[in-house]
Amino acid sequence: MRVPLVIGNWKMTTTHVEAKDLAQQIVERLGSLHGVEVVLAPPFTSLAAVAPVLRGRGIGLGAQDVHWEDRGAFTGAISHRMLEALECTYVLVGHSERRKHFGESDHLVNRKIQAALRGGLKPVLCVGEEEQERSGGQLRAVIRRQVSQGLEGIDSGAAERLTIAYEPVWAIGTGKSAKPEDAAEAHDVIRRQLERIFGPDRSRTVRILYGGSVTGENTAGLAARAEVDGVLVGGASLDAQSFAAIVHGGWETRPITG
Ligand code: PGA
Fold this sequence. Notes:
Number of helices: 11
Helix content: 25-40%
Mean pLDDT: 96
Distance between the termini: 5 Å
Bound molecules: 2-phosphoglycolic acid
Oligomer: single chain
Largest sheet: 8 strands, parallel, barrel
C-alpha cells in the first residue's frame, strides 16, 4: 500500500524562529489528516524548534541532507544520529541543488542513502534530468543511472523505507512544472528500474514523488495520475495556505495504489 506523501522542503530560508511560526500555521491549516502523509523539512538549525510543534499532530519531520559517516572529524557536517535524536524520520538525499552547488556525485549520494538506512531514517532519493538532457533524448538513461547508482548495494529489505522524488531540474523553482503525463512517464521509468533492483514485490512499496513548481493549482492533475505517489514542494511550502491547498488538492481522496 502506498499512502500519498507530501513533503515541504524549506531549503535555506527560515531562521528557527520563523520556522516555528510557519510550522504552527501549517499545523493549524491542515487540521487532521486522512489518507495522506505530510512531512516538513526545515533547515538543520530549525529542526529542534519545529519538532515540538509537529509532535502528536500526525506531521513528520525531515532533514534536507545527511553526512555519509556516522560520526567523526567532519567539521560542519550533520550525521544521521543527530537527526534521529531530533525526531527526524525522513531525509532528502541527492537534491539537484546539492548535486549542482555542492558537487555531489551519484557515488556520494549512495553513501548518504546507506548512512540514512544504517540509522533509522527514511531516505528520499532525489533524481531528475537537466533541460538539455531531456531535449537530447537522455531522460531515461539519466534517471535510470541516478536510481541504480544511488541505490547501489542497498538490500531489497530496505525498500519499504525508501522514497524516490523525481524532480526535473528545469522545473525546480521556475514556475514551469512538468505536465502530469510527462511526470507519469518518468515515474514509470523509475518504477521499472526499481523492479530490476528490488524485484516486483519489494519495489511496489517504494513511493515515487514528483517535485518542481508544484502549486495548489497543478496538484490535482498530478494526484489524478496513479504513477505519482505524492509531491515534494519547495516554494509553495513556505506559505501555510498554499501548502494546505496542495495537501488538500486531491491526495486524500484518491484510491491508494500498491
Ligand atoms: P519548487 O522546489 O517547488 O520551488 O520548484 C521543489 C524542490 O526543489 O524540491
